[in-house]
Amino acid sequence: QVQLVESGGGLVQTGGSLRLSCAAPNRAISGYAMGWIRQAPEKEREFVAVTNRNGGTTYYADSVKGRFTISRDNAKNTVYLQMTNLKPEDTAVYYCAAGEAFFSETYYNHGENHGMDYWGKGTLVTVSS
User: Fold this and answer.
1) β-strands 5-7, 18-23 pairing
2) 39-53, pLDDT tens digit by residue?
3) What is the 3-state secondary structure (H, E, C) of 74-108?
4) I want to staple 116 with a disulfide (CB 3.0 to 4.6 A). Which of 15, 49, 60, 97 is the partner?
5) Rounded distance, CA 3 to CA 126, Å?
6) Would you give the end-to-end CA distance of the chain in angstroms?
7) Where are the alpha helices (DSSP H) in the chain?
């Protein structure tokens, strides 16, 4: 079981930026694909971004391309999501997640559990208009 702890959420104005962090206190993340999934109020969970084990391949949801950047530092056992030009529709609980396999971009968008096996408890991001 991989424990994942998110931080960095908060309230930001439209056009602002936030950086989310995800730490794994009990397991090395280098063995996992790492990603971010979000869930807005009264909506289904939505894939945001994923990176493979060495960070060499990344996928993004169309809604965040060009604004969000996922990165990982395996030495620090941490994954990041840099969010810029935030919009009210980005308001959601953001979950860090780990997957034992790395899938296609389509699977991350539409597959079971968005291809992820382990989930954090989430951090709330609120973008005010």
Assistant:
1) antiparallel
2) 999 999 999 999 999
3) CCCCEEEEEECCCCHHHCEEEEEEEECCCCCHHHH
4) 97
5) 24
6) 39
7) 105-110
In the sheet where 5-7 sits, what is the strand order?
5-7, 18-23, 78-83, 68-73
How many Cα atoms occupy the beta-carbon half-sphere of 89 within 13 Å? 4
| Single-letter residue type at 93 | V
Dist CA 120 CA 98 (whole Å): 9
What local confidence, expressed as pLDDT, does residue 42 receive? 94
CA-wise closest residue to 120 among 39, 48, 24 = 24
Cα–Cα distance for residue pair 98/7, rounded to 1 Å:
16
Per-residue pLDDT of the chain (129 residues), as tens digits, is: 899 999 999 999 999 999 999 999 998 999 999 999 999 999 999 999 999 999 999 999 999 999 999 999 999 999 999 999 999 999 999 999 999 999 999 999 999 999 999 999 999 999 999
- Most distant pair of Cα atoms in the chain: their distance: 39
CB 91 within 8 A of CB 126: yes
